[in-house]
C-alpha cells in the first residue's frame, strides 16, 4: 500500500499558560489515506480544532512529525505553509468567513488569486462550482443577502476552487438548521465519492455517523478510532501546480481589493484622506501664492530695467530727517550727467497744490519728472502724449494728468486734451492722460499731475533741491562700479554721505529673497500638516487591521503569502494618500479660482513641478506611514486571526 497522505507521529501542541504550559494535544499518532471520509469528534475544548489547524498547515505542532504526501512539513516557515495550503487544502468554517464586501463569485475566486490563476480562468471555474452547488442564480449576491446554508455553499465552492485534495471542515453544520446541514453533508459525501479526502470536525454524533471513520478525542488524546479505511485512490491526478502568479498580476489584484475596501468604508476613507487633502492643498496653494506675488512685484519694477540707480536724500528709507536734507540738488544731477558712464539723469520733485477748473476745486500732487519718467516707471498714456525734452528745457506748462484727476476736473471720461486749468497760481495745459498707478489693493485715489521737473522747481518750489534722482547708466557699465562712482562723486560734492542709492537689481533680489523665505516658512507649516495627515493615515490603517483581522486570517488560510497581505494594505495606504493628493491639488486649483474672483491684484501661479512633487510626496507618505500597519497585518498568526471575530 502506498504511503498515507497524512501521517502524524507523536504530535504535541502546547500553549504557554501563566507560569507553565497548557498541553492541548498529547502524543497524537494518526494516519489518513487518500480518499478517506473522517470525522473527528469529542467534547468541546478537547482539542479538535487545534488538531484540524495542524492538519491544515495553519498551525505548527510544538513537537512531533507531520508527513504530508511523504514530505516532512511540521516545522516549515509561514510562506512554505501558505503554499501547502494553496496546494492541498480547502477550508470550510462554521462561520463561513466570507468577505462581506465581495460577491459570492468574488469570494470563491479569492484562493485562485493567490494560486495565480488568470482572471478569466478563475471566474469561469468559480462560476462552474457555484452552478454545481445550486448557487448559479446568486453569483452577484453579497454574503449579507444569502441565507446561512447558501453562504456555506459559497464557502464550499471557495474550498474547491484550487482543486483541493483534502477538504477540512470545522463544524460545517454548526450554524445551520438541520435541512441546510443535511444538504452540506450531502455535498461533502459527493466530494468524497469523487475521491477527495474529507475531514470534518463535529461534536454531533449524528453528523459523525455520516463519516466512514470516526476518531474520538478527549483531553488532547485519541481515545477511539472506529470504521473502515477504504483504499480509494480514485481522484484524478491533481491539477499541476501553476507557476507563481506574476508579481504585476498580484499587485493588480491587491489594488482591486484596496479599492473594494475603500468603497466599503467611504466615509472613513474620506476622513483618512482629509489630513492629506488639507496638507497637499495648502502646500500647493502657498507655493502658488508666493510665486504669484513674486511675479507681480517683479513685473511692477521690471519697467525700471536693471541699469538704473535711484538716489535719495537721507541715510536710508524711513530716515525721518530726509525731508529736511536739501543738499541733493539739480547741480548734482548735472554733475552726474557729465560722467562718461551716465546715460541720463532724471530728477523727481513734488509739490501739493490746489487745482481749479470752473467751479471745481481739488487738491492734488504735482509730480515734477523728466521726459523719460513715463517709460522708466512703466506708466502708460491712455490719451494724448507725454511731454518731451523740449518741454523740460523750456519749463513749459504742458502737463499729463492721471485719470483720477481727469474724472474729477472734467467729469467721468470727459474730454481733457487741450484744456487749461489752474494749479495754485499757475495755469497748466493738458496734453496727455495717464492710467492710474496701482498702489496696493484697490488702486490709488490720489490725484496726480505730471509736469516737467523744471517747471515745478521754477514755479512752485523756487529751489533746485530735488526729492530724488533716477540715474540710468550705459548698458555696458558694471552696476556696482557705477554705484561706487556715484557715491564717491556726491560725497565729495556734499562733504558728507547724506544720501543713499538703490539699484533695481538689489530691489529685485531683495523681493525674491523675501518671498522665497516667506514661501519656505509657510511651506514648512504645510509640510507639518502633511505629516500629521500621514500619522492619521497610519493610525486609521492600524485600527483597520485590527478590525479586518478575520479577513486577514481567511486570506492567509486560503493561501495568501505574507507579502500578499503586506502589499494589499500598503497599496491601500498609498491609494488613500494619492487620491487625497489629487483631491488636494484640485482644492488648491479651486482656491486659485476663488482668489482670482476676490482679488484683482495678482493671481496664483501654479507650477507643474509643485504638483508632481505634491503627488510624489503623498505617495511617499502612504508608503512610509502605511508600512507599519501593513507589516503588522502580514505578521498575524492565521489561527489567532481566524478565531478572533
Ligand atoms: P475544540 O475545537 O475541541 O472545542 P480547541 O482545539 O479549540 O477545542 O481548544 C482546545 C483547548 O486549547 C481549549 O482548552 C482552549 O482553551 C485551548 N486553546 C486553544 N487555542 C488556544 C490559544 N491560542 N492559546 C491558549 N489556549 C488555547
Ligand atoms: Mg473547535
What does this structure look like?
By secondary structure, this protein is α/β, with parallel strands linked by helices. The protein has helices at 48-55, 78-88, 104-115, 119-132, 148-160, 178-193, 205-208, 247-264, 266-302, 330-337, 373-377, 389-393, 403-410, 453-461, 479-494, 504-547, 549-557, 562-598, 608-634, 638-643; strands at residues 6-17, 20-32, 37-42, 63-68, 71-72, 89-93, 166-170, 197-201, 213-218, 221-227, 308-313, 342-357, 360-369, 381-384, 398-402, 420-423, 426-434, 448-452, 468-473, 499-503. The chain folds into 3 domains: 6-244, 3-Layer(aba) Sandwich (Rossmann fold), CATH 3.40.50.300; 257-299 and 510-643, no CATH class; 326-497, no CATH class. The strands form 3 sheets. The protein has a 6-stranded mixed β-sheet with strand order 6-7-8-3-9-10, sandwiched between helices. Strands 12-13-18-15-17-16 form a 6-stranded mixed β-barrel. A 4-stranded antiparallel β-sheet has the order 2-1-4-5. A hairpin with a 2-residue loop joins strand 4 and strand 5 (71-72). It is rod-shaped and about 130 Å long. The two termini are 43 Å apart.
Oligomer: single chain
- Named CATH topology of the largest domain: Rossmann fold
Q: For the record, give the distance between the C-alpha atoms at the N and C termini, rounded to a whole number.
A: 43 Å
The radius of gyration over CA amounts to: 44 Å
CATH classification class of the largest domain: Alpha Beta
The outline comes out as: rod-shaped
Give the number of helices. Answer: 20
Give the tally of structural domains. Answer: 3
- Could you describe the largest sheet, including whether it forms a barrel? 6 strands, mixed
Which CATH architecture of the largest domain is right? 3-Layer(aba) Sandwich
Amino acid at each position: 500500500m502506498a504511503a498515507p497522505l497524512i501521517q502524524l507521529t507523536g504530535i504535541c501542541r502546547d500553549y504557554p499558560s501563566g507560569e507553565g504550559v497548557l498541553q492541548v494535544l498529547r502524543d497524537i499518532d494518526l494516519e489518513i489515506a487518500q480518499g478517506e471520509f473522517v470525522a473527528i469528534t469529542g467534547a468541546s475544548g478537547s482539542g479538535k480544532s487545534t488538531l484540524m489547524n495542524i492538519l491544515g498547515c495553519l498551525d505548527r505542532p510544538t513537537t512531533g512529525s507531520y508527513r504530508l504526501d511523504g514530505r516532512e512539513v511540521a516545522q516549515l516557515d509561514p510562506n512554505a505553509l501558505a503554499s501547502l495550503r494553496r496546494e492541498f487544502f480547502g477550508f470550510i468554517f462554521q462561520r463561513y468567513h466570507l468577505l462581506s464586501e465581495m460577491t459570492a463569485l468574488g469570494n470563491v475566486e479569492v484562493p485562485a488569486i493567490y494560486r495565480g490563476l488568470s482572471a478569466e480562468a478563475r471566474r469561469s471555474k468559480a462560476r462552474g462550482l457555484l452552478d454545481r452547488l445550486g448557487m448559479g442564480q446568486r453569483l452577484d449576491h453579497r454574503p449579507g443577502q444569502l441565507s446561512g446554508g447558501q453562504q456555506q455553499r459559497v464557502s464550499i465552492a471557495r474550498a474547491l476552487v484550487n482543486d483541493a485534495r483534502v477538504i477540512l471542515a470545522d463544524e460545517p453544520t454548526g450554524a445551520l438548521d438541520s435541512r441546510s446541514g443535511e444538504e452540506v453533508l450531502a455535498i461533502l459525501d459527493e466530494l468524497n465519492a469523487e475521491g477527495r479526502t474529507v475531514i470534518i470536525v463535529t461534536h454531533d454524533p449524528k453528523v459523525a455517523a455520516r463519516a466512514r471513520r470516526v476518531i474520538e478525542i478527549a483531553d488532547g488524546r485519541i481515545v477511539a478510532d472506529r470504521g473502515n479505511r477504504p483504499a480509494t485512490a480514485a481522484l484524478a491526478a491533481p491539477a499541476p501546480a501553476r507557476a507563481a502568479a506574476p508579481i504585476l498580476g498580484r499587485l493588480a489584484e491587491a489594488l482591486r481589493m484596496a479599492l473594494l475596501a475603500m468603497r466599503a468604508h467611504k466615509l472613513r476613507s474620506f476622513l483618512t484622506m482629509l489630513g492629506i487633502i488639507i496638507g497637499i492643498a495648502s502646500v500647493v496653494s502657498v507655493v502658488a501664492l508666493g510665486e504669484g506675488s513674486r511675479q507681480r512685484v517683479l513685473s511692477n519694477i521690471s519697467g525700471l530695467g536693471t541699469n538704473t540707480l535711484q538716489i535719495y536724500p537721507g541715510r536710508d528709507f524711513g530716515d525721518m530727517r530726509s525731508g529736511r536734507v536739501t543738499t541733493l540738488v539739480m547741480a548734482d544731477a548735472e554733475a552726474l550727467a557729465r560722467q562718461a558712464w551716465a546715460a541720463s539723469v532724471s530728477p523727481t520733485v513734488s509739490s501739493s497744490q490746489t487745482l481749479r477748473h470752473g467751479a471745481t476745486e481739488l487738491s492734488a500732487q504735482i509730480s515734477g519728472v523728466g521726459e523719460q519718467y513715463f517709460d522708466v516707471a512703466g506708466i502708460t498714456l491712455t490719451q494724448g502724449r507725454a511731454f518731451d525734452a523740449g518741454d523740460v528745457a523750456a519749463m513749459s506748462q504742458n502737463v499729463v494728468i492721471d485719470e483720477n484727476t481727469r474724472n474729477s476736473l472734467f467729469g467721468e471720461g470727459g474730454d481733457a486734451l487741450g484744456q487749461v486749468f489752474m494749479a495754485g497760481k499757475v495755469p497748466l495745459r493738458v496734453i496727455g492722460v495717464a492710467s492710474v498707478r496701482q498702489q496696493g489693493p484697490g488702486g490709488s485715489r490720489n490725484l496726480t499731475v505730471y509736469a516737467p521737473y523744471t517747471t515745478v522747481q521754477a514755479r512752485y518750489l523756487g529751489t533746485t533741491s530735488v526729492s530724488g534722482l533716477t540715474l540710468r547708466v550705459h548698458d555696458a557699465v558694471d552696476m556696482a562700479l557705477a554705484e561706487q562712482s556715484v557715491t564717491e562723486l556726491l560725497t565729495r560734492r556734499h562733504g558728507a554721505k547724506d544720501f543713499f542709492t538703490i539699484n533695481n537689481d538689489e530691489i529685485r533680489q531683495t523681493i525674491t529673497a523675501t518671498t522665497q523665505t516667506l514661501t519656505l516658512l509657510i511651506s514648512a507649516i504645510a509640510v507639518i500638516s502633511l505629516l500629521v495627515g500621514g500619522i492619521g493615515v497610519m493610525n486609521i490603517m492600524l485600527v483597520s487591521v485590527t478590525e479586518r483581522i478575520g479577513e486577514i486570517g481567511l486570506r492567509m488560510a486560503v493561501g495568501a503569502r505574507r507579502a500578499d497581505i503586506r502589499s494589499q494594505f500598503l497599496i491601500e495606504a498609498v491609494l488613500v494618500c494619492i487620491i487625497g493628493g489629487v483631491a488636494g491639488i484640485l482644492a488648491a486649483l479651486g482656491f486659485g479660482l476663488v482668489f482670482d474672483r476676490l482679488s484683482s491684484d495678482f493671481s496664483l501661479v501654479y507650477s507643474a513641478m509643485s504638483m508632481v512633487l505634491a503627488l510624489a510626496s503623498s505617495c511617499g507618505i502612504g508608503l512610509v506611514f502605511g508600512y507599519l500597519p501593513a507589516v503588522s497585518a502580514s505578521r498575524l498568526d492565521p489561527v489567532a486571526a481566524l478565531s478572533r471575530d
